[in-house]
Specification:
Number of strands of chain B: 0
CATH topology of the largest domain in chain A: Alpha-Beta Plaits
CATH class of the largest domain in chain A: Alpha Beta
Distance between the termini of chain A: 15 Å
Helix content of chain A: 40-55%
Low-confidence stretches of chain A: none
Structural class of chain B: mainly alpha
Shape of chain A: rod-shaped
CATH superfamily of chain B: Formate dehydrogenase/DMSO reductase domain
Helix content of chain B: 55-70%
Largest sheet of chain B: none
Number of domains of chain B: 1
Low-confidence stretches of chain B: none
Distance between the termini of chain B: 28 Å
Oligomer: heterodimer
Radius of gyration of chain A: 25 Å
Order of helices and strands of chain B: HHHHHHHHHHHHHHH
CATH class of chain B: Mainly Alpha
Order of helices and strands of chain A: EHEHHHEHE
Strand order of the largest sheet of chain A: 2-3-1-4
CATH architecture of chain B: Up-down Bundle
Shape of chain B: globular
Number of helices of chain B: 15
Chain lengths: ~180, ~450
């Protein structure tokens, strides 16, 4: 159902109240929820069931690709593309490849960690409706917000509003699109 | 705002009591957004900027006339340039140690010093990176160091530690910059929401990439920070190891030794913590940040300095012992020349700065006195510079056959270029202090007792 608004947002002034409210909303059956906080809160990750994300896998893949790139690059250059015979020493001198292989593993791993993090978060994002909430600027100072989106099947402007107000927030407001 | 009382009072708080989320945010962001810029800032910034101009003059002359304007003559081909390179890159190591290794070790006190320590890393690596480029003589051909298909049909020598160094240092610079920027994103969001200035809102808005503190984002963000820390930890240990390979893989007496890697890493962290203290002590005074960068931070940094200083002292002793016990005639002569040869003043000054001066840090009164701590940090920075000078110059000047010896003496351009990079570092650092939050705001918020969620389920 459409409501013409993005959702309802409740403002709390401490992390404990926010975590309690988030749990209550989950228990009530709301699923399209998000919380906005000035710093990471361990309990919230629990309350929103966010414990798994794909980032470690992305970084592992990036690191393996980096390591292979480093090793194969050096193998290709020293054995195939530009072999230098120094007194009959073996061309495939793998111990001397270790350092660059290691460095490229780290480099690719770190790049995929950062790009993966941005990708999973959908950043950069030039516009997001939640910034329309009247006091939302305080999310980056000292206020803790819980937003129930209107796309949630259980969302009902009056009932959800009453539910949020029952959690004793500082304020409940509508978020325009 | 009603502050919920903490459940358990921590034995020694990481920051001064009485802060709230709002006051932490205000105090740190005010330095950038609202506070009047202190005279101290103008002073340091102008000195830095003046020295940057000197650096540009040195570079113009260097490119015009070649590296002959420096005192480097065969056999001492490395001189000041590589000394400064190793010194600067070592200073950078403390920033990564604080931001990555102490994060993995869950040392939460680091949260209020990691941001500017990382910035220090970044700028120190920038200064370090200039020296090999300037030393090349033809820096515009620097890309010859990287493997790429070219019409000359040649490739870098991957068995050379100098090529390893290119990869290690460029990876280090990239990863440090990424780590630093990722840490800045939430704080850039804070600045975007707090600035009243339209241009500021645009710039901080673009840089923060639309960060909105969403719990879903925080969860990915924390994973990313941990993974980056896990990657940066072996990286930082590897960088100075690779730098030490530039020496140990060669057979020059005084260089060719197996314990250089740990010795170099310890020395790097030693000088890096000294630089952290040199920056932190005046900054916290000028900006009134003693509540966030407390005496505990200074004391901890001093302890790390003392510990790494002892490792360095042990290395000096073992180095001399190894030369004597090994019985190799050139090795023995090289060390005897360090102690009594033409560079003996530098050697004994280095012993005084690096081994004797830090012993005062055993005394708690010294560790908690910012002025004495500042002075001993300066001593360590000088000592570590002299150490690199001794290793590089004294070993090259008197290596094997006395007929091939040659004494190095720096010219004024050597000194000016070195001073120029100190200026570049100062210039960049004070620009950073003015434009970005020098303390990580969101990480300091997590240190507050009211950041803890009280559990009452079950």
């Amino acid at each position: 159902m459409t409501h013409g608004i993005y959702g309802l947002i409740a403002e709390f002034d401490n992390p404990t109240a926010l975590v309690k409210a988030t749990r209550a909303a989950r228990d009530k059956g709301y699923r399209k929820l998000d919380a906005f906080t000035p710093f990471p809160i361990e309990g919230l990750t629990d309350a929103l069931h966010l414990h798994r994300n794909k980032l470690p896998l992305i970084v592992l893949t990036g690191g393996i690709i980096g390591g292979l790139t480093g090793f194969l690059l050096q193998y290709y250059v020293t054995v195939i593309n530009f072999p230098i015979n120094v007194g009959g020493r073996p061309l495939d001198s793998w111990p001397s490849y270790i350092i660059i292989t290691f460095e490229l593993t780290i480099l690719f791993g770190a790049l995929s960690a950062v790009l993966g993090m941005l990708g999973l978060c959908g950043l950069p994002m030039p516009y997001h409706p939640v910034f329309n909430a009247p006091r939302f600027a305080l999310h980056s100072t000292n206020r803790f917000f819980l937003c129930i989106e209107s796309s949630d099947p259980m969302f009902d402007l009056a009932a959800t509003g009453d539910f949020l107000r029952a959690l004793e927030p500082h304020e409940v407001s509508e978020v325009a699109h | 705002m009603p502050d919920t009382p903490p459940l358990v009072e921590p034995p020694q708080p990481d920051i001064a009591p009485g802060y709230t989320f709002a006051s932490v945010t205000d105090q740190i962001s005010a330095v950038v957004l609202t506070k009047r810029t202190p005279i101290f800032w103008y002073l340091c910034f102008s000195v830095g900027f003046g020295l940057v101009l000197l650096l540009l003059l040195c570079m113009a002359l260097l490119f015009g006339k070649g590296v002959g304007i420096w005192g480097i003559r065969i056999p001492v081909a490395w001189g000041f340039a590589i000394t400064n390179f190793v010194w600067w890159i070592g200073i950078g190591h403390a920033g990564t140690l604080i931001s990555a290794i102490l994060l993995l070790l869950n040392q939460r006190w680091r949260n209020s010093i990691n941001r500017f320590a990382e910035a220090m890393t970044l700028f120190a690596v920038a200064c370090a990176g200039m020296f090999p480029l300037l030393h090349m003589g033809r820096p515009w051909l620097f890309f010859w160091m990287f493997p790429y298909p070219n019409t000359m049909d040649i490739q870098p020598q991957f068995r050379s530690p100098l090529v390893w160094d290119v990869f290690a240092v460029s990876t280090y610079a990239t990863v440090s910059a990424l780590f630093w920027f990722v840490g800045l994103i939430p704080d850039l969001g804070t600045l975007r929401d707090r600035t009243r200035n339209r241009a500021g809102r645009m710039i901080y808005g673009i840089l923060s990439m639309g960060w909105r503190g969403s719990a879903q984002h925080w969860s990915v963000y924390e994973t990313a920070s941990l993974l980056l820390a896990g990657l940066a930890t072996p990286l930082v240990l590897s960088v100075h190891t690779v730098v030490s390979f530039d020496f140990t893989i060669a057979i020059v007496p005084g260089w060719h030794s197996t314990f250089f890697p740990p010795y170099f890493v310890a020395g790097a962290i030693y000088s890096g913590f000294a630089m952290v203290l040199v920056l932190a002590i005046p900054l916290r005074k000028v900006y009134g940040l003693q509540g966030l960068i407390t005496d505990k931070h200074l004391e901890n940094a001093a302890k790390v300095m003392l510990a790494t200083g002892l490792i360095v002292a042990y290395s000096y002793i073992m180095e001399n012992f190894g030369a004597w016990f090994g019985g190799e005639v050139y090795e023995k002569a090289a060390f005897w020349n360090r102690l009594t040869g033409p560079y003996r003043y530098a050697y004994w000054l280095l012993i005084a700065c690096n081994i004797i001066a830090p012993q005062f840090l055993w005394i708690k009164r010294v560790r908690t006195n910012p002025i004495l701590l500042f002075m001993s940090s300066i001593a360590v920075l000088i000592g570590m510079w002299l150490e690199r000078f001794m290793i590089i110059v004294a070993s090259l000047a008197q290596d094997f056959v006395p007929a091939a010896w040659g004494i190095f003496s720096p010219t004024r351009w050597d000194w000016f270029t070195f001073a120029g990079t100190i200026g570049l570092f100062t210039f960049l650092f004070f620009l950073f202090v003015r434009l970005l939050p020098m303390i990580s705001i969101f990480e300091v918020r997590t240190l507050l007792p009211q950041a803890k969620v009280e559990e009452e389920r079950g």
